[in-house]
Structures are given as C-alpha cells and as structure tokens.
Amino acid sequence: MIINTRADLEALRGTPDWPVALRLLAGSTVGWRRPEGAPAYERNADTSALDRLGMTPTELQAELDAAGIVIDPPQPPPLREVPPEPPPSFLARDLLALLTIVDRRAIGVAIAADDELLLLWEGLLGQGEAPIRTTAQRFQRGWAGLSAALGGARADEIATALGIVPPAS
Fold this sequence. Notes:
Blueprint: H1 6-10, H2 17-27, E1 30-33, E2 42-45, H3 48-53, H4 57-66, E3 89-90, H5 92-98, H6 101-113, H7 115-125, E4 132-133, H8 137-150, H9 152-162
Antiparallel strand pairs: 1-2, 3-4
Helix pairs in contact: 2-4, 6-7, 6-8, 8-9
C-alpha cells in the first residue's frame, strides 16, 4: 500500500485497507530518541507524513475515532545496557616483538634469580592469542618484574608502543 497523497489515502476509505492505513499513519507520527547520556528515551513527535497529506494530528485522531480504532499509547523501545569498555589489553606477541636482544638478556638474568618471575615469563610465552588485560594482578606483578629488569624508562617506552598505561610502581 503506497500513500503519497491525500487522494491515495481517501481512495482507501471504505476498503479493508482503510483501518490499516490509519494505523500505519498513526504509527508514523511517533518516534523515540535517546540523547547521549540520557537515562531514558524521549518521545519525538513527527508529523512529516501527516504534513505531506495535508492532515493535522487532530484530523487523524478524528478519523481513528470514526473508524473505532484505539491506538495504544506508544511505548519506548527497551533500554539496552551498554556494556562497559573492556580494560586495556595487548597481545603477548606484540610485547615480545618489541623486545631487543639487550632486553631479552636482562629478562633472562631476572628470571634466573626469581622463580615467580620465571613462571610469569613462561605464562607470557604460552599466552597465545588471548589478550593480556592490564588490570589483571598477574600482569601487574609481571610488569613490575619487567620494569625492574629493564628499567623504568625502557618499560615506559614499551608501554607507549603497546598503547597501554603502565601500572604505578
């Protein structure tokens, strides 16, 4: 059913399509918008379809009443919770790609002297494609060891290259 003009609408009067057309027209007059940061949707009246037909909301309501059509009050769409942003993360391979031979030697010395750091290093090597979350305690401990082994300035360079904020020491 195409209704571009008032004549198109009037041509449906008295046919089974008349109530359908009125319902569609009534539905086109209500929209919803949710301003950024707003807790709920706001009703947004839109009379553009009525305007094209030379009809007012009052005239539409009169036609609905005459046809015995009761339109339920419009309801806003359900609110969808926006999931929180995931914590910053990176891939182990990206970190490993940034390490120089000098970095790897310093890490070798550090893990030889600290069993916990050795286990964290082996975990990093086995991480695969799973992201490393910078909010994880394991990352925090590992980063502290990396910073101690390489020095704060080099660790900061790596953090910047990974696009992460290093944990406070």
